[in-house]
Amino acid sequence: QVQLVESGGGLVQAGGSLRLSCAASGRTFSSGTMGWFRQAPGKEREFVGSIRWTSGITYYADSVKGRFTISRDNAKNTVYLQMNSLKPEDTAVYYCAAREGIYFRRSPDDYDYWGQGTQVTVSS
Q: How many beta carbons lie within 10 A of that of residue 1, not counting itself?
């Protein structure tokens, strides 16, 4: 089993920044992929981006490309989501997720493990 715990959410004004963390514990895997998703009230869970544990190669949704950056610290088993130039439409609960394998996937169904989520609210 893999346990994922997100932190770093909060309230920020439009144009501001936040950094989310996702700490992994339990059976971690060296060849997997970590993903970030978000879900706003009344909407489906949306892919934000993902990163490969080994290479650090990243992949982003168009809606966040150029504003959000995913990184990882393998020694700490932690993945980060740096969010800059935040907009009110970025308001959502943000989740990290993990899957085995190196291929990027955008569907939540392709991820095996999930964190509990952390709320991000961007005020206008």
A: 7
The encoded tokens of residue 52 equal 């490969």
| Cβ atoms < 10 Å from Cβ of 41 | 7
- Angle, alpha carbons 62-14-19 (nearest 5°): 70
> How far is it, in rounded angstroms, from Cα 54 to Cα 32?
8
pLDDT for 85-111, tens place per residue? Answer: 999 999 999 999 999 888 899 999 999
Q: Are 120 and 92 in contact (CB under 8 A)?
A: yes
Angstrom CA distances, 39 to 13, 19, 55, 94, 118, stand at 19, 17, 27, 7, 10
- The SS3 assignment for 15 reads coil
Taking only Cα atoms into account, the Rg of the chain, rounded to an integer number of angstroms, comes to 13
For the chain, the average pLDDT equals 94
CB within 8 Å of 105: residues ≥ 6 apart: 33, 35, 50, 99, 111
Q: What is the mean pLDDT of residues 52-78?
A: 94
